[in-house]
From TrEMBL:
Membrane spanning stretches: 6-29
Lineage per the UniProt record: Bacteria, Pseudomonadati, Pseudomonadota, Gammaproteobacteria, Enterobacterales
Domain of life: Bacteria
Keyword terms of this UniProt record: Membrane, Transmembrane, Transmembrane helix
Protein name per the record: Cation transporter
Length: 42
């Protein structure tokens, strides 16, 4: 049972890791940057 679930976890990790590093992390960084600079400008 466990051996059959391992490939699904590996494939899921291989799909989500590039998505996180290419899209979600830079978008979150930009949102934090914009909030910080809006507070300083106001």
């Amino acid at each position: 049972m466990i051996i059959t679930c391992v490939p699904f976890a590996l494939v899921g990790g291989m799909i989500t890791a590039p998505l996180l590093s290419l899209f979600i992390i830079p978008a979150a960084y930009k949102l934090m940057w914009l909030r910080r600079h809006r507070r300083l400008a106001a």
